[in-house]
Write a structure and sequence with these properties.
Layout (H helix, E strand, L loop, with lengths): L1 H25 L12 H34 L10 H10 L1
Length: 93
């Protein structure tokens, strides 16, 4: 599972770089015109990315929990059948 997680992180990282480079190329921004981030700005971005990763992981865990609970339940047959259903079943047999 950790290999899949690392693979997904690499894919998302490469996609993010691709989208950023595409946006720069679209607006004719070269590496000469980009400004360097300060250390404080870099720390804020790292904290923001870490926070987003935690939120995504929590969301994915919550999404997986109901699926496991639903998979464990056995489907119950309908308790109330209508007269029409009973007649249809009787005609079929």
């Amino acid at each position: 599972m950790s290999d899949n997680k690392k693979n997904l992180e690499q894919i998302s990282s490469s996609l993010a770089k691709l989208f950023i480079l595409d946006a720069f190329n679209k607006h004719n921004v070269s590496s000469e015109h980009r400004r360097q981030l300060s250390d404080d700005e870099k720390q804020q971005l790292k904290a923001l990315v870490g926070n987003l990763q935690n939120q995504v992981n929590e969301f994915l865990e919550k999404q997986n929990q109901p699926k496991v609970a639903k998979a464990n339940k056995t489907p119950e047959p309908p308790k109330n059948t209508t007269l029409r259903d009973m007649l249809k079943n009787r005609k079929k047999s």
